[in-house]
Design brief:
With about 350 residues, this protein is of the alpha/beta class. Helix content is about 35%, strand content about 20%. The chain contains 13 helices and eleven strands. Strand 6, helix 8 and strand 7 form a beta-alpha-beta unit. The longest helix is centred in the N-terminal third of the chain and has 30 residues. The protein is globular.
């Protein structure tokens, strides 16, 4: 008899237990506390967006690699934002910025040239410190002096790395020299090597060309190649890379250095290999070399593997420099870095000659 009475009680207990389990499952999935994709192995796991659409972020405020597209980057502000700085960022501004602005048309970017000074990383950071820019692009890290200037004004500066880039050495297409070592390059620019015959080339005077020493590229070259020695007064100085490349194409003995994306694909100059030692020369372009006669139907492509694995000796990081002052300008700069660090942004950077860091 007792078993007959216990049966309804047992059935009721089972219904109550099932209800509690079902309610708990509903609460977890509705509140976002359970990542179904990660649990079942069908989704992106911890990088999947929750109900709000937010993605995990790295400690530096940049998005994790789970952010696939520009459209998935959050906190992109509306407004008109001035930015400027490194000339190395020209391919980014020309090829990538228009794409991201199609996704965020209310996030309006305007590149701003300096007045009375050549464009460059240092100039852009100075303009940022003077509140003339919302954020800056830089091909070098911040200096202690720049950080101190910011602190004296009541805010701090943050550098966010977004890519790796290489310097390429350009010469006249007809020059029969395939490469130089870093030591030879230093001696060329310091005036110790003055004729290409000293490097196994023709009897031809060397004409070293450089932009003024107030940009990130030149500062990097001086510190890395010249060991901190200033450029001699004998160097042929030009204002912009376009002018320098034109000069090299018209001067058989000229040599110039600039960002690899600005040099490697050109039809009127020849990028040459460089190396730490004579038996370690690495070209900045992918083999086989495309001669000028085949250009522009074919163009040389950047040796991204050589830049990525460190075989190519002249590489550096590119940064977005942001004012940390709680303003919409800070939000605009952080959003710009986050867009470039998305999978779509990193892919476009690779297509335009930069090495992705994500």
């Amino acid at each position: 008899m007792s078993s007959n009475r216990e049966t309804p009680v047992l059935i009721a207990s089972l219904f109550i237990t099932a209800g509690l389990i079902g309610g708990g499952w509903w609460w977890f999935t509705r509140s976002g506390n359970l990542d179904l994709g990660g649990l079942l192995g069908n989704g992106p796991g911890q990088n999947a967006p929750g109900p709000s659409g937010d993605f995990d972020t790295a400690p530096n405020g940049a998005p994790s690699s789970g952010v696939a597209t520009f459209a998935q980057v959050t906190a992109v502000p509306e407004g008109l934002f001035n930015y400027g700085g490194s000339t190395t960022g020209a391919p980014i501004r020309g090829a990538i910025d228009p794409v991201l602005q199609q996704v965020y048309p209310a996030y309006q970017l305007r590149y701003t040239d300096p007045i009375g000074a050549p464009a460059g990383s240092g100039t852009g950071i100075a303009m940022l410190l003077a509140n003339q820019l919302s954020f800056a692009q830089s091909s070098r890290p911040l200096t202690p002096e720049e950080r101190q200037q910011a602190e004296a004004q009541g805010f701090s500066l943050k550098e966010i790395p977004v890519a790796i880039e290489g310097l390429a050495i350009a010469v006249h297409p007809d020059l029969s020299v395939e490469g130089v070592t870093l030591a030879q390059l230093r001696d060329i620019y310091l005036g110790n090597l003055t004729n290409w015959s000293q490097l196994g080339g023709p009897n031809l005077p060397i004409t070293p060309v450089s932009r003024p020493a107030d940009g990130g590229t030149v500062e990097f070259f001086i510190s890395t190649v010249l060991g901190g020695s200033p450029l001699p007064a004998t160097i042929r100085s030009v204002g912009i890379t376009t002018e320098a490349l034109r000069l090299v194409s018209d001067t058989p003995g000229a040599i110039y250095y600039a960002s690899a994306p600005e040099v490697v694909g050109q039809c009127t100059v020849k990028p040459i290999a460089i190396g730490r030692q004579g038996d370690q020369l690495v070209s900045p372009y992918q083999a086989p070399y495309v001669p000028p006669a085949a250009c522009p139907a074919q163009r040389n492509q950047i040796n991204l593997d050589g830049l990525r694995n460190g075989d190519y000796p002249l590489t550096r990081r590119l940064f977005v420099i942001v004012r940390e002052d709680g303003s919409s300008d800070q939000q605009a700069g952080e959003a710009y870095a986050n867009l470039l660090l998305s999978q779509q942004g990193q892919g476009l950077l690779a297509e335009n000659g930069f090495v992705p860091i994500r």
